[in-house]
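Data availability (excerpt). The following record was deposited with the supplementary files.
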Amino acid sequence: MAGTSWMQSCIQNQIFAITHICSYESEVIFAFSRAVSVQLYSSFSPCGKCCQMIRRFLDHRSQCTLYIAFTSLYRASEDINRSGLQALNKHRNVRLLDIFTNKEWRLLEDRGCFVLSPIARAIMNEWDAHWRQKLIEIVTA
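Predicted structure:
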């Protein structure tokens, strides 16, 4: 039971973080206004509103390329989020829109963010494959 409440708390914090980022669009755009290449790592895929914000940002910065990797899909059953990911995937400046691979997990591990046991890594790889298949279904629909 304690694990369930911890997970619910994590999900609520992630939803708050996504809402927070979307509500401060001008600050996010200013932070990346001079960037040529942006690598965005996130727990969840961008929501439909964030996808729209990211596309507007890229439309005004033709020199900027974007790489987005995330661990899971945010409310993938909702049409607004699915259509947002589809449109973002088609944008000419998006070079990667994908689920974490071993490369991203190793990057976080090397930075000391966490340590995974071999069993945990195997389970994580299974979930990554699950989410990747769902993402492929969304962007190819």
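Summary of structural features: The two ends are 38 Å apart (CA to CA).
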